[in-house]
Amino acid sequence: MFRPCILALLSLLLNFIPTWAKNFTNPVFYADYPDNDISLGPDGAYYYSASNFHYSPGAPILRSWDLVNWEPVGHSIPRLDFGDGYDLPATGQRAYRYGTWASTLRYRKSNKTWYWMGCTNFWNNWVFTAASAEGPWSYAAYLGGGDCYYDSGLLIDDKDDMYIVYGNGQIKVAQLAADGLSQVKTQPVFKASDAGVEYMEGSRMYQINGTYYILNDQPGSTAFVWKSESPWGPYEHKVLVKDVTSPVAAGSSPHQGSLIQTADGAWYFMSFTWAYPSGRMPVLAPIKWEADGFPSFVKGDNGGWGKSYPLPLPAKAVKPLTGTYRFEGPALGPTFEWNHNPDTSKFSVNKGLVLQTASVTTDLYSARNTLTHRIFGEFPVGTVEIDFTSMADGDRSGFGAFRDRSAYIGIHREGNNYSIVAAHNMTQDEYSGETLDFGRVVESVPVREGVRKIWFRAELDARAIGSRDANFSYSYDGRKFVRLGETYELYTGWAFFLGYRFAFINYATKALGGSVKITTFTSS
Ligand SMILES: *[C@@H]1O[C@H](CO)[C@@H](O)[C@H](O)[C@H]1NC(C)=O
Ligand SMILES: *[C@@H]1O[C@H](CO)[C@@H](O)[C@H](O)[C@H]1NC(C)=O
Ligand SMILES: *[C@@H]1O[C@H](CO)[C@@H](O)[C@H](O)[C@H]1NC(C)=O
Ligand SMILES: *[C@@H]1O[C@H](CO)[C@@H](O)[C@H](O)[C@H]1NC(C)=O
Ligand SMILES: *[C@@H]1O[C@H](CO)[C@@H](O)[C@H](O)[C@H]1NC(C)=O
Ligand SMILES: *[C@@H]1O[C@H](CO)[C@@H](O)[C@H](O)[C@H]1NC(C)=O
């Protein structure tokens, strides 16, 4: 009797929330999906392509109906088949910081095909296509090497001609063949010094009322808009945003991103702000078109990139970004990504995720089949339940905070000794990816006699202005958690290009054959 009454009252109240209160807040979500390229799909939803470098599958895609509530739906690149390094070889070059970065995604109405294009290190251009953004995606063409489609933007204009803008410093436009699967010609169109800056990247291309536009930026500070009657120029330019206050405390001035039109003709700029240890998070703001044919930026109450603006469209809920996974199978969902390509013979998803060891190593960064999941929010918490009955002698398994400096809590087995360990400071050179430090066990306790199931928890303060640290704990019952190890200081360098993630770690130091089973994972 009582509850329905409250619900009725609530819904009555909700209907009376005035329009002015229907704002969204920046960042639109607190997670690392950098280099957004956003465009409209055939279903009226917006699709957001992002960079994920050496994580596999590559080039994640999110979907939204309102530009504010986003849901991961797939990846454009099923497997990073761009060279041996992507399979994380035991020796030799690894693909840290390679893979996908600032690539582009568009739907082509004329043949009902989604196109992903981009340049991967070192320096090759690729096309992947799909009938649906959710996939399946497949390799479609190699567009050559050398002249890299560095930070590219695909345009399919009103004549169905396909152009791609790209370059750093010198910006070029290439025209593609009718099927989009080869390049017909390419031409320089303008350079950074034409705007009085030393460097320029992050280009996207649009056609608006017949006029060609290029959005790009000087890294760190300024977004420019360029306009021309022809894709080949000449282009004139104006500044859209320069050195604005970020809506995220200690975040960088947003500058790179996408221009988006809503069905009612309003326009928005989705950019992103750099705020490590989390990474690069999307921020949205309205723009207005001026009489001279250039857009101007709409400042927020803070005089910069607003923390809050009116919703662009009626809010439409999507699947929440956080929640509990039980690994029902048969596949992992789009929120999971492997560190480099996985050895697919060494895991299975069927009412639990079984990770068999896939490498014999003492270097976490050379261990294949480390599974990752983004952290969401300012205070992300991850909890896993692990059955380690089938661990082999010498195996190391755990759950941690992963990037170029990592830490985890886990089980190390030596002979018949099973220890719960906190391991810190596994460190890479942030530019070369070379391992500098295998890390060290900072605290260890024996596993309670006969127990083969345990819960691990990682709690982070991922705010750029926060304590920027992580605490790890374990539990025998999933309720009472015991801290292990000192507080781990999260690293805030940008050069790895990606922020911290949760990671499920499982590798051998002696011989393959062991496995662990993860039965639940909660990300909150
Ligand atoms: C449309 O895309 C498909 C898939 O890439 C391609 O095979 C086909 O040639 C394209 N059709 C046209 C008319 O461009
Ligand atoms: C495009 O043209 C339409 C119709 O003339 C006009 O309403 C709209 O403002 C124009 N959009 C831009 C971005 O110039
Ligand atoms: C909504 O956004 C507008 C424009 O940025 C701002 O002036 C207003 O204060 C915001 N309202 C709320 C309730 O945050
Ligand atoms: C197992 O632990 C015992 C007691 O600490 C120790 O004496 C023994 O060396 C350990 N065995 C291995 C293989 O580490
Ligand atoms: C972490 O590793 C780096 C690189 O080897 C080293 O310089 C640093 O001293 C280590 N820090 C700790 C606390 O072990
Ligand atoms: C980690 O623990 C330390 C010491 O108890 C505390 O100051 C810090 O706020 C904690 N951080 C998180 C993210 O829980």
UniProtKB/TrEMBL annotation:
It comes from the Eukaryota. Pfam families: GH43_C2 (PF17851), Glyco_hydro_43 (PF04616). Keywords: Glycosidase, Hydrolase, Signal. Gene3D superfamilies: 2.60.120.200, Glycosyl hydrolase domain, family 43 (2.115.10.20). SUPFAM superfamilies: Arabinanase/levansucrase/invertase, Concanavalin A-like lectins/glucanases. Residues 326-517 form the Beta-xylosidase C-terminal Concanavalin A-like domain. Residues 1-21 form the signal peptide. GO terms for biological process: carbohydrate metabolic process. GO terms for molecular function: hydrolase activity, hydrolyzing O-glycosyl compounds. Belongs to the glycosyl hydrolase 43 family. This is Glycosyl hydrolase family 43 protein. It comes from Paraphoma chrysanthemicola.
